[in-house]
Amino acid sequence: VQLQASGGGLVQAGGSLRLSCAASGRTFGTYGMGWFRQAPGKEREFVAGISQSGRSTAYADSVKGRFTIPRDSAENTKYLVMNSLKPEDTALYYCAARDGNAIYQSPNRWPWWGQGTQVTVSS
User: Fold this and answer.
1) Which of 19, 87, 100, 112 is deepest in the core (most CB within 10 A)?
2) Is 23 exposed, middle or buried, given 0-12, 13-18 or 19+ CB atoms closer than 10 A?
3) Alpha carbon of 112 to those of 1, 25, 26, 105, 108: distances in Å?
4) Could you tell me the pLDDT band of residue 71, with boundaries at 50, 70 and 90?
5) Which residues make beta-bridge pairs with 9?
């Protein structure tokens, strides 16, 4: 499975971005997808995830109500819609994939990773 993340950029606080994660090799219909982020000097942290079935989603407390994974995206592309962005959301954002419906917050439970896309939010 190969994942390609895109859509990052520079945005002012309060703005919005939509990140994309395109999969090749297998379609997303056969595995779940997660978004993680890593700021300089910090560990990689869970942001949001959607189960393989698409019925379940999970979000970190820090992004609840602001970030959304749409459930109706195409099979081989998933998105992370980010609204009301804050400077503390600045990080390198990664998409990841795994088999099964569990959504784990630990990066170690996700075997496939994209290369990351930079999100910078200015104050």
Assistant:
1) 19
2) buried
3) 7, 12, 12, 14, 10
4) confident
5) 119
CA distance 71 to 33: 11
Whether the per-residue pLDDT at 41 is higher than 80: the answer is yes
Among the listed residues 91, 93, 90, 89, the one whose alpha carbon sits nearest the alpha carbon of residue 115: 93
Burial 77-101 (b: 16+ CB within 10 A, else e): ebbbebeebeeebbbbbbbbbbeee
What local confidence, expressed as pLDDT, does residue 23 receive? 86
Residue 27 has pLDDT above 80, yes or no: no
What's the CA gap between 61 and 52, in Å, rounded?
A: 22
> Residue 65 is which amino acid?
G
- Say how far apart CA 27 and CA 24 lie, in whole Å: 7
